[in-house]
Write a structure and sequence with these properties.
Elements (H helix, E strand, L loop, with lengths): L7 E4 L5 H12 L3 E5 L13 H12 L3 E5 L6 H15 L4 E4 L14 H29 L2 E6 L2 H5 L5 H21 L4 E8 L14 H4 L3 H10 L10 E5 L2 E5 L14 H6 L1 H4 L9 H8 L1
Helix pairs in contact: 1-8, 3-4, 4-6
The structure holds nicotinamide-adenine-dinucleotide (NAD).
The site of nicotinamide-adenine-dinucleotide has 34 residues, from helix 1 and helix 4.
């Protein structure tokens, strides 16, 4: 059994849904958990201490160790205070699961700057801020595990979610660079793109998904990714309903000529669009252009 004894985990947005399930699983397997949740509505408005406190109570009742934190991950002060909560309660931070999220769905033409900025603030800025606040501690320890929460909507696009998809694909870039920079200090970062039945999706998913797409079926992957034994870093996985799959950003072999014109591109569009063999890194992409 993969256990987390002596590990300290921060889970953001852990008062409901996926984060709650991640917190319960890690605590059940020995981790000391900081349950962060602002306790607001799905659109990010409002705040309440209730959801984080309830999850902590449940963990404690089951014999686990956890503390609540209700800071807003989207502000630098909130992210710092969250990491400080972990240090004050448990002395360190080994694991950060950036899971907090909100929705402001609108079709592209109707989306306001406020809808766009507020969604990016929680998902992208929040993940950046909390990871960065924990980063010096992880560097010092020579060990760290970070999981960011992307979405199939970001990887593949989704109607009415221009703000959310931008944020969720942004997290892929953040994860990949964190993995590259963190490698020399034993810090691994991966991203998940889940599907689960939560308050965020219950109005969108077909009713028959409720039983199959449980948050627990996502938490199992999160637990593996933040375990010491997991070697992967910089990867993205879709996960839901019991299935886990690697998603990779890849470039095709491309088409190259010394006489690149709009017409030669049009005439060789089939080769430009070819998918294999894959190029998987920025370095290999540049080499292929030489
Ligand atoms: N449920 C799905 O199918 C699905 C699919 C793709 C991605 N996701 C992502 O998974 C994550 C969890 O979503 P969920 O489905 O469990 O939804 P949820 O609404 O149940 O949970 C999100 C939690 O984040 C908290 N939160 C929001 N803003 C916060 C802030 N600024 N600071 C701290 N906490 C904050 C909320 O209070 C809430 O408890 C989100 O990032 C979401 O975008 C979910």
């Amino acid at each position: 059994m993969l256990r987390f004894d002596d590990r300290v985990a921060i889970i953001t947005g852990a008062g409901h849904g996926l984060g709650r399930a991640h917190a319960l699983l890690l605590a059940e397997r020995g981790a000391q958990v900081v349950v962060n949740d602002l306790g607001g509505a799905l659109d990010g408005t409002g705040a309440s201490t209730g959801p984080a406190a309830e999850v902590v109570e449940l963990i404690t009742k089951n014999g686990g160790r956890a503390v609540a934190n209700t800071d807003n991950v989207a502000t630098p002060e909130g992210a710092q205070a969250l990491v400080q909560t972990a240090v004050d309660a448990f002395g360190k931070v080994d694991i950060v699961v950036n899971n907090a999220g909100i929705l402001r769905d609108k079709s592209f033409g109707k989306m306001t700057v406020e809808d766009f900025d507020s969604v990016l603030a929680v998902h992208v800025r929040g993940s950046y801020l909390v990871s960065q606040a924990a980063y010096p501690l992880m560097k010092e320890a020579g060990h760290g595990r970070i999981v960011n929460t992307s979405s199939p909507a970001g990887l593949f696009g989704n109607f009415g979610q221009a703000n959310y998809s931008t944020a969720k694909m942004g997290l892929v870039g953040l994860t990949k660079t964190l993995a590259i920079e963190g490698a020399r200090n034993g810090i691994k970062a991966n991203a998940i793109a889940p599907i689960a039945w939560t308050r965020m999706t219950e109005a969108l998913l077909p009713a028959e998904f409720e039983e199959k797409f449980t948050p627990e079926r996502v938490s199992a992957l999160v637990a593996y990714l933040v375990h010491d034994s997991c070697e992967s870093s910089g990867e993205v996985f879709t996960v839901g309903g019991g299935r886990v799959a690697r998603v990779f950003v890849a470039e095709g072999p491309g088409w190259k000529t010394d006489d690149l014109t709009p017409e030669s591109i049009a005439g060789n569009w089939g080769s430009v669009m070819a998918e294999q063999p894959y190029v998987l890194t920025a370095g290999d992409s540049m080499k292929a252009m030489l």
